[in-house]
Amino acid sequence: METPSYSHLTSEDYNHVYEPSEDSFLLLDALEDELLFLRNKKPLICLEIGPGSGIIVSALAKYLDYQSHGFFAVDINKYACDATLRTSKANSVNVQIINMDLLSSFKPNSIDLLVCNPPYVPTFTNNLDSVCDIPEQTKLYDEEAESVYNSSKSDKMLIKSWAGGLDGCEIINRIISNLDYILAPNGIFYLLIIKENNPERIMKTLKTMGYESHQIKDRKIRGEHLIVLKITKT
């Protein structure tokens, strides 16, 4: 499964949108390994949460292309929505992009294939909205907080693309807690995480919710151990 073209994106775009990196390419590799399985499953509604540059959902739209399908992407970052639209057009695929927070506009149990490379980096706060309003005391004593405090609004949207809160799990936990609402009865969820997110705890939580999860691919890079989980309803 070839990486979709994204040469149309510029350094200016990457001031506001997460640039494809090792985590993006690992998720692409994992989905390539799953391609035969997914083609046999024929998911009708495919959704990526937080598409960033749009290469993941564009690849799925290209290689799972068949009648009666729908490919969607949702992102709270308007710049990411624009980048995803441009990437889909550059690769001649049809992706519907929605600028919103997670999945508030989708019908219950409507997603057959869910994919997410979430913000997973552990950061100094468990409330990501606070990157827009950091107390002065925190600013003075936390270099990371001070950097965020001094960022522009668009820079803060970029920070939200990787800043995951305490343990890096704020968005991950929100998605998992809503899986029963999101996924179709036979839905599949591919989630990228890192070792610091405590995969064992995540998988234990999923098991108590009635989901089967297992690691299908991992890669160690400098400073991170990336992991892709495949999650299905038992």
TrEMBL record:
Species of provenance: Clunio marinus
GO biological process, one term: methylation
Record-stated family: Belongs to the eukaryotic/archaeal PrmC-related family.
First-listed, main subcellular location of the protein, grouped into a coarse class: nucleus
Domain of life: Eukaryota
Places the protein is found: Nucleus
Reaction(s) the record says it catalyses: methylarsonous acid + S-adenosyl-L-methionine = dimethylarsinate + S-adenosyl-L-homocysteine + 2 H(+); L-lysyl-[histone] + S-adenosyl-L-methionine = N(6)-methyl-L-lysyl-[histone] + S-adenosyl-L-homocysteine + H(+)
Keyword Glycoprotein in record: no
Function: Methyltransferase that can methylate proteins and, to a lower extent, arsenic. Catalytic subunit of a heterodimer with TRMT112, which monomethylates 'Lys-12' of histone H4 (H4K12me1), a modification present at the promoters of numerous genes encoding cell cycle regulators. Catalytic subunit of a heterodimer with TRMT112, which catalyzes N5-methylation of Glu residue of proteins with a Gly-Gln-Xaa-Xaa-Xaa-Arg motif. Methylates ETF1 on 'Gln-185'; ETF1 needs to be complexed to ERF3 in its GTP-bound form to be efficiently methylated.
InterPro entries hit by this protein: DNA_methylase_N6_adenine_CS (IPR002052), Euk-Arch_PrmC-MTase (IPR052190), SAM-dependent_MTases_sf (IPR029063), Small_mtfrase_dom (IPR007848)
Protein name per UniProt: Methyltransferase HEMK2
GO cellular component: eRF1 methyltransferase complex; nucleus
CDD domains: AdoMet_MTases
Domain Methyltransferase small span(s) in chain numbering: 27-122
Record carries keyword Methyltransferase: yes
Pfam annotation, one family: MTS
Keywords attached to this entry: Methyltransferase, Nucleus, S-adenosyl-L-methionine, Transferase
GO molecular function: nucleic acid binding; protein-glutamine N-methyltransferase activity
